[in-house]
Amino acid sequence: MSKLLGLAALAVVLGACSTTAPPPPQVASIEGGSAAPTTSATSVAGRPQWRLDSTDEEVKKLWFAYYACLGEHGHKMIPERGSPDQNSHTPQDKAAEDACLHTMPLEPDELDKSKNPHFLDDYHVYMKCLTDKGMRVHAIDPFGTGWTFDDGVTQTLSNDQQIKVEHDCQAQSFANH
């Protein structure tokens, strides 16, 4: 789950500061439903894969299905968030993660450094887009691993606006190749 750059929009929802932390466990109360196979491609490994053009709701549904599986298999959960407790590392948690791996969403290939030879160039464009559209953020080291909000600066965009900017910039910046 360390390569979840594409879920930065979900992190923004919760006021998270960086895309390097695994944002999916921080999703606040995702409302019901399971991932619809028609909204995402299925990877070669059989895991659901979201696309750059997936809506936030589609991505949330994919993660919700994974979280539901983890909970059904006994992973310690954070009830108010409906997500796994990332600080819990019991043998039962590991067994649940292994049992549910087939339901854990994969990010788009464009966001995978090993599959996108233009990743760092695209990431430069992405960061410029975020700041050009009003987000007060900067890249963290090593470059391409995430971003964080600027310290001491009040964000002028609402959470909803930030989510839209992040989603739009990601789609525009990484879809160029």
What do you see in this structure?
With 177 residues, the chain is mostly helical. The chain folds into 2 domains: 105 residues, no CATH class; 56 residues, no CATH class. Helix content is 36%, strand content 8%. It is built from 5 helices and 6 strands; from the N terminus they run H-E-E-H-E-E-H-H-E-E-H. The strands form 3 sheets. Strands 1-2 form a two-stranded antiparallel ribbon. It has a two-stranded antiparallel sheet with strand order 3-4. A hairpin with a 5-residue loop joins strand 1 and strand 2. Helix 2 packs across helix 3. Keywords: Signal. This is Secreted protein.
Topology:
Elements: H1 8-13, E1 41-42, E2 48-49, H2 56-72, E3 77-78, E4 83-84, H3 91-100, H4 119-132, E5 137-139, E6 147-149, H5 159-174
Antiparallel strand pairs: 1-2, 3-4, 5-6
Helix pairs in contact: 2-3, 4-5
Quick take:
Residues 22-49 are annotated as: Disordered. It is built from 5 helices and 6 strands; from the N terminus they run H-E-E-H-E-E-H-H-E-E-H. The protein is mostly helical and 177 residues long.
Label this structure with key terms:
mainly alpha; 5 helices; signal; two-stranded antiparallel ribbon; Secreted protein; 2 domains; 36% helix; 177 residues; globular
